[in-house]
Design goal:
This protein is an all-alpha fold. It has 11 helices and no strands. α1 runs antiparallel to α3, α1 packs antiparallel against α6 and α9 runs antiparallel to α10. It is flat, with a radius of gyration of 23 Å.
Length: about 325
């Protein structure tokens, strides 16, 4: 089927615009992070409650003005609004690419990374919607922008039909499930990384990083965020591996052949299973479990880039020359 070059150009333009708007959202979130007040310790909160015996509302005859929204909160709300616009442009670029090629738009690494980043941003909009967690966008958007930059430069592929091996109804089923799980794992990996950094900052509160870490949510909130997102993504990733095996049997006559991508996918699944087990085991549920979660995310990135771009196998459909 011929390619619609006009829609393909609009798709690329929408992708480039989305990247620029994502960058603007990051600037706003960084501004919010620098303007947010340092998180107070428990002892400071208790002392503040004890010293405030009478509130302005208890004084007779006084009209209490509603508290003005802090500047950091305004910046954060602006960042979320800009982020939503960027996501709409991002999704629009994928829809236009699909219409231009008359297929589902995840037939090469450029398209797969694009859809994975979009799902990661969408998942972030859900789990980071509370103002206390919104400052995490400063760190969550950085890997998204890096991945999109790599996708738009190194991994970019012109709009074209997919190779014959991918012309199957299993493509949207298998790849969509893996993309969703990978996008949510992105949020989980960032949360575990920040969890370890906050713990380190709490041990050295007077250092530069210690003061920086006090602007982040507390370690327990980050640990819970990493655990809950992994709980959601882990069964999806497992289902994606199983669906891939079913597709392999339909295409190659075997469910499993220890192809490099199959092998590393299985290793990543085992690592995430180990994280969930460690998270529920005394003595492992804090720093050790977080390191395992980070290792799982590294294995996922290794599977996405190194296996597709360097190692030759049956899954070498990167779309690179």
């Amino acid at each position: 089927m011929p390619i619609n070059d006009t829609l393909a150009r609009y798709s690329d333009l929408s992708f480039e615009t989305a990247f620029a708007v994502y960058l603007l959202a990051l600037v706003l979130f960084v501004a919010e992070f620098t303007a947010v007040r340092v998180r107070r310790t428990t002892s400071e909160l208790v002392l503040a409650a004890a010293t405030s015996s009478v509130t302005p509302s208890e004084e007779p005859g006084r009209i209490v003005e509603p508290p003005r929204r802090e500047w950091s909160d305004r910046l954060g709300r602006m960042g979320v609004s800009v982020l939503i616009v960027a996501l709409i442009l991002h999704v629009g670029s994928m829809v236009l690419r699909g219409l231009a090629t008359a297929r589902f738009p995840w037939g090469n690494m450029y398209e797969f990374v694009t859809v994975t980043c979009a799902i990661g941003v969408f998942a972030g909009l859900i789990v980071l919607r509370r103002p206390a967690l919104r400052v995490l966008w400063t760190f969550a958007l950085i890997p998204v922008l890096i991945l999109l930059f790599v996708a738009g430069t190194v991994l970019y592929a012109d709009a074209a039909p997919v190779v014959p091996a991918l012309q199957s109804f299993w493509l949207p089923i298998h790849v969509s499930v893996v993309s969703v799980s990978s996008g949510v794992f992105l949020v989980s990996g960032v949360a575990s990384t920040l969890f370890l950094l906050v713990l380190r900052g709490e041990k050295r509160p007077q250092t530069g990083w210690g003061r920086l870490a006090q602007r982040l949510p507390d370690a327990r909130a980050l640990d819970r965020l990493a655990y809950r997102t992994t709980i959601f993504a882990f069964p999806l990733f497992g289902a994606g591996v199983i669906l891939g095996a079913i597709w392999a049997e339909a295409s190659w006559g075997r469910f499993w052949g220890w192809d490099p991508k199959e092998t590393v996918s299985f290793i990543a699944w085992v690592i995430y299973a180990a994280y969930l087990h460690a998270r529920a085991t005394a003595g492992w549920r804090e720093t050790r479990a977080a390191w395992i979660n980070i290792a799982g995310f590294v294995a996922t990135l290794f599977n996405l880039f190194i296996i597709n771009m360097v190692v030759s196998g049956l899954h070498s459909y990167a779309g690179l020359n």
